[in-house]
Predict the structure of Integral membrane protein.
Amino acid sequence: MVRTLVLIIALFALIVALWAIKDEKLSKKLKATITAFIIFGVGFAYFYESSTNVQNEKNIKILANFNQQKIIKCGEYNVSKAKFNYEFGTAVFMAKPEIAEIRGIIIPISKCEND
């Protein structure tokens, strides 16, 4: 909350500083264009970050359930710690090689559902 407030104040200060520049150096049209780009960029970044946070929270819950030995529904597969390993670098569940019927199966965590 405080971080968001500080960012809003900083954005406001940037826009005020931009508009404080004399019109001889930057025209009002250019100032308006720069302001629009700043607002668009900040808005895009905010919505992108929000959607990323939602996905990350979902992944953390799925991984917590996996670590608690619960069965997770991932497409047509039921993923459990007994049959799959989780690979952190690629965020996928990989079938354990000793289980012949599912050998070679790789499931991205984004395809899993959290119950």
In short: Residues 2-113 form one domain.
